Amino acid sequence: VRPFLMQFADGHPDSFVLAWIENALVGSDFYVGRHIPDHAASLRAHTSWEHLLSSQRLCQTACDRDPRNHHYRLLLVHVLRTMGEHDRVIKAWKDGLTANPKDVTAHVELAKAYVRSERWNDAVKHLDTARKLEPDHSEALGQLSEILLDCPDLTVRNPQEGLAVVTQNYPTTGNDRQLAMAHFRNKNWEQAVSVRNIGNPTDRYYLTSHALAERYLKAMAYWKLGKPKESLAWYLNIVLPNRITREDPRLAPRYHHDATTMIPADMIIAECTRRLANGDEPSLYLARGEARARMKKFDAAAADFSEALKLLKRGKGWSDRVR
Q1: What SS3 state is found at 66?
Q2: Which pLDDT band holds residue 303 (cuts at 50, 70, 90)?
Q3: Residue 117 in contact with residue 140, Cβ under 8 Å?
Q4: Sequence-distant contacts of 103-107: CB under 8 A, at least 24 apart
Q5: 212 or 41: whose pLDDT is higher?
Q6: Rounded to whole angstroms, how far apart are CA atoms 222 and 232?
Q7: For a surface tag, which of 197, 240, 277, 314 has the fewest beta carbons within 10 Å of its beta carbon?
Q8: What is the distance between the alpha carbons of residues 305 and 303, in angstroms, rounded to a whole number?
């Protein structure tokens, strides 16, 4: 199949054919590349590296022949990311905007590439442009609100504007986490805990990193409202059992740190001890160990972590964090 596809697409850069090429040359041989895009050196050692280069050349040819077609460019960018060529991703989208300055998709994708490089001001600039070109573009509004609400660069963060953007986009996305975060960042504690479906405790499969972030938010908002009992209940009953599962390394731990340092360590220790009297639970040992470590009770913390590991080894889950 591969020689036929390459010969056919050389003269016919059709998006359907290129999609097949992308699947044949990248999807099957380089699936692992999607998980380790920065390790280009290890990919080059792979016997199919030349196939990936062929796919990149074909996609580049299609972009050169039809530079205004962002579908071709999306394929090219996917291959470049797999190769770990992040700087070339930015150049690819810049080339697309040179050919068509009003391409909203190109502005949004370039902004996302800038976010990966932590070039926040450049990202906001292109998202604002996309918003002017298409005021109700949901992805542009969503990306912009994430930056305005939660950007590590405080000179870029703008909670009030972020809330306005989220409110504009909410009827389309129904993104409860963004709405709760927007209210939280604007110190609207009551609105933050009142957003529907945030950290739904009845959904046993609601274990994504975004769900974890929602629950941390709710615990912190209740604490800000002066309701420590409700705050601690959300923190222990819902958040911690799910931290034994795999979670997104970029999102939930940041909120976990905020919530953990906000709630007093002695309160966490007392509540965990009370609950452990009713039965062993690894997440409670983990929570109590972290709280004891905050109080510099390191021997007691180590003992709690050891108990958590014993339970995990008996088949109750696993956690690199405990180790």
Answers
A1: coil
A2: very high
A3: no
A4: 103/68, 103/70, 104/130, 104/133, 104/134, 104/137, 104/140, 105/70, 105/74, 106/70, 106/73, 107/133, 107/140
A5: 212
A6: 9
A7: 277
A8: 5
- Calpha distance 33→184 (Å, rounded): 37
Residue appearing with tokens 């911690």: 240
Joined tokens for residue 18: 């290129």
Judged by DSSP in three states, 195 sits in: coil
Neighbours of 48 (CB within 10 A): 15
Q: Which residue has the tokens 């339970």?
A: 311
Q: In this structure, are residues 312 and 282 in contact, taking their beta carbons and an 8 Å threshold?
A: yes
Rounded to an integer, what distance in angstroms lies between the CA atom of residue 121 and that of residue 13? 35
Q: In this structure, how many other beta carbons lie within 10 angstroms of the beta carbon of residue 164? A: 14
pLDDT of residue 28: 42
Q: How many CB atoms lie within 10 A of CB 200?
A: 14
Length of the chain: 323
Cα dist. 137→134, 142, 159, 164 in Å?
Answer: 6, 9, 20, 15
Read off the pLDDT of residues 83-107 as tens digits, 9 standing for 90 and up.
778 888 899 999 999 999 999 999 9
Tell me the H-state helices in the chain.
2-11, 15-22, 40-44, 49-65, 70-83, 86-99, 104-116, 120-133, 138-150, 159-173, 176-185, 189-194, 209-224, 228-234, 240-242, 252-262, 265-276, 282-294, 298-311
SS3 category, 196 = coil
Find the farthest-apart pair of alpha carbons in the chain and give their distance in angstroms, rounded: 73
Q: Is the per-residue pLDDT at 206 higher than 50?
A: no
> Between 266 and 176, where is the model more confident?
266
**pLDDT at residue 204, as a whole number:** 42
